[in-house]
Amino acid sequence: MMFGIAQHWLYLGLAIGLGVCGTLCMKESHGFRQHRWSAAMVIFYLLGFSCLAMTVKVIPIGTTYAIWSGMGTAMIALVGIFHYHEPAPPLKILSIALIIIGVVGLNLVGSSH
C-alpha cells in the first residue's frame, strides 16, 4: 500500500509540472495565435488533469487541489520573475513564500491522519 500512496504523490508532482508547462505554453501561444504552442498547451493540460485524476483516487481531493493549485501558482510566479523578468517587490516574494508554507502545512496535516 505504501508504494500506492507514493505513486499517487508522484502523479501529483507530475500534474503540477504538466500544469505549469501548460500555463507557460498558454503565455507563448499569444492568445492562441501560435498554433504549436496552443496545441502543446492542450496536451500538457490533458496530461496534467489525467495525473490529477489519478491522484484523487487515494489522496483527499481538498489536499490534492490545494497542493496542486498552490504549488502551480508559486512556480508560475517564480518563472514570471526569473524568466519573464516581472517585478518582484518584497510583498510578492512574501506572498509566494506564504503559499509554499501553506502547501507544506497541508501536507503535514494530511500525512498525520
Offer a concise description of the structure:
The protein has 113 residues and is mainly α.
Describe this entry's structure for a reader.
There is one protein chain. The protein is mainly alpha-helical. It has one domain. The chain is 81% helix and 0% strand. It is built from 4 helices and no strands. It has helices at residues 2-28, 35-55, 61-82, 90-111. The longest helix is centred in the N-terminal third of the chain and has 27 residues, at 2-28. The radius of gyration is 15 Å and the shape is flat. The mean pLDDT is 92.
Q: What descriptors fit this protein?
A:
single chain, 113 residues, mainly alpha, 4 helices, 81% helix, flat
Principal-axis shape: flat
The biggest sheet amounts to: none
Radius of gyration: 15 Å
Q: Average the pLDDT over all residues and give the rounded result.
A: 92
Number of domains: 1
Distance linking N and C termini: 15 Å
Number of strands: 0
The topology string of helices and strands comes to: HHHH
Q: Which regions have little confidence, pLDDT < 50, spanning 5+ residues? A: none
- The SS-based structural class is mainly alpha
User: Total number of helical segments?
Assistant: 4
The percentage of residues in β strands lies in under 5%
Roughly what percent helix? Answer: over 70%
